[in-house]
Design a protein that fits this description.
By secondary structure, the chain is α/β, with parallel strands linked by helices. The protein is built from nine helices and seven strands, in the order ααααβαβαββαβααββ.
Length: about 230
């Protein structure tokens, strides 16, 4: 009930982005994963498509509670490092509890656009980019972190542009107007520019465009995508 009530109230308007996230998520942090488990589609598939292997250095930007690490729990011990980056202390508290089981996993409180690292084999964002005001800066930062043969993975909600790149899904007018309005209340900003930006900056390795059901809105499905790409050098 607490999580649903906070979502209905929406993201606070006042304060810095970090302060707004903390006010929004602190009351629901313990129940965050259970409530969103059926909503956030495609996360395991995105992680499988990243082809994680032993010895790699991996960074998740916008890691939240660290739930995604559970999907790759069998791989994590063999990684050289897994770094979970987020800006919200309430969610990071949950992430630290998860990360405690893996000596090679660390949790960092930082802005995804400002966190710095180099020669990272895999960087990924899971339902995080749409919540980041400087999403272009986040993508630029993610690409700058990658090793020459690295991969960037993104899974997120979106709506297409009226005229997306050739071969990409085109959504109808109702979809393009309704879902951005619906999600904006909670500080999630849906648009087609993210997918176009990825298309322009990376060589495509894997793409899936689908629709996910909403547990509290029977019969309605929201578009989401999975994108895996290599930076163009």
């Amino acid at each position: 009930f607490t999580t649903l009530w906070r979502m209905l109230r929406g993201l606070p308007d006042a304060g810095s982005h970090a302060a707004r996230l903390q006010a929004f998520y602190r009351p629901q942090a313990e129940h965050y994963d259970a409530f969103r488990e059926r909503l956030l589609a495609g996360r395991p598939r995105m992680l499988r498509a990243l082809a994680l292997r032993a010895g790699q250095r991996v960074v998740e930007l916008g890691a939240g509670t660290g739930r995604n690490a559970e999907y790759i729990a069998d791989v994590v011990p063999g990684l050289q490092s897994l770094t979970l980056v987020d800006l919200c202390p309430a969610l990071l508290e949950q992430a630290r509890r998860r990360a405690a089981r893996w000596p090679n996993c660390r949790v960092v409180e930082a802005d995804a656009a400002g966190y710095r690292d180099r020669n990272i084999d895999r960087v990924y964002l899971s339902y995080a980019l749409t919540m980041m005001p400087d999403w272009r800066g986040v993508l630029d930062n993610a690409l700058a972190m990658l090793a020459p043969d690295g991969l960037l993975g993104v899974v997120d909600f979106y709506v297409s542009e009226a005229r997306p790149p050739r071969g990409y899904v085109t959504h109808g007018v109702w979809t393009r107007r309704f879902w951005p309005w619906w999600f904006a209340h909670d500080g999630v900003h849906l648009h087609g520019q993210v997918l176009r930006r990825l298309h322009e900056r990376l060589d495509l390795e894997f793409l899936h465009e689908g629709r996910a059901p909403l547990p509290w809105l029977p019969g309605l499905t929201v578009p989401y995508f999975i994108f895996i790409g290599r930076p163009r050098r």
